[in-house]
Inverse folding.
């Protein structure tokens, strides 16, 4: 049973560039949530996708956008990168009609120079 | 805004000792989740709690859902070196709403001396 997978593992970008991160949910899950985790902090909720639509959003600017595909996989896009966007980006999958448990992937470490 | 407060921030203990940490909120929660995160990895779900007063174990780990629904506790018995990591509590934003947005505490960093 495959767990949550994310790609790439690491990424280095420069200010102003754009980045796309990818996530495949755990087998059988239909909901994907994205979190940003700065060094020394707990994860911060960015948004959640279900049925290919953004259902909930945290306190992040419009530079952060996403997409969910029919196979439930998801992408996180960040435009006009800032130094402060450097963080570990985590994807979590869950069942929309299940309990509130979310299972996390290994994350993508983004460094903005 | 809504937040979870974890304590202690860090712990440095001897192998074999028991560990206790807790998480408090200003609002009521209907779910408490405890995660462990190793350096460079994603959080791994340890225990999920759904009812006030619930006590759930996972091996040497035991977690409790506080009676007031505003706190939760995690205990680790007979710690071993692989218990090293950061422990996070989490709950659904809004406390009692069935939302997929989780909020996290700041984490408790555990170090175990062999």
């Amino acid at each position: 049973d495959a767990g949550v997978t994310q790609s790439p593992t690491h990424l280095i970008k420069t200010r102003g560039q754009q980045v796309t991160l990818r996530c495949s949910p755990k087998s059988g899950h239909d909901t994907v949530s994205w979190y940003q985790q700065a060094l020394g902090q707990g994860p911060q909720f960015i948004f959640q996708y279900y049925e290919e639509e953004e259902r909930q959003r945290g306190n992040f600017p419009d530079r952060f956008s996403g997409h969910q595909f029919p196979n439930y996989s998801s992408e996180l896009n960040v435009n006009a990168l800032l130094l402060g966007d450097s963080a570990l980006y985590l994807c979590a999958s869950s069942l929309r009609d299940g309990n509130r448990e979310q299972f996390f992937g290994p994350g993508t470490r983004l460094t903005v120079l | 805004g809504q937040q979870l407060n974890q304590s202690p921030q860090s712990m440095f203990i001897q192998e074999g000792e028991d560990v206790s940490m807790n998480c408090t909120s200003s609002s009521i929660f209907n779910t408490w989740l405890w995660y462990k995160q190793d350096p460079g990895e994603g959080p791994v779900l340890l225990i999920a709690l759904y009812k006030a007063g619930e006590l759930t174990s996972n091996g040497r780990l035991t977690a409790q859902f506080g009676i007031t629904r505003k706190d939760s506790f995690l205990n680790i018995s007979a710690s071993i070196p692989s218990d090293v990591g950061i422990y996070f509590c989490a709950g659904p934003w809004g406390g009692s709403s069935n939302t997929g947005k989780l909020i996290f505490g700041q984490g408790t960093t555990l170090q175990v001396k062999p």
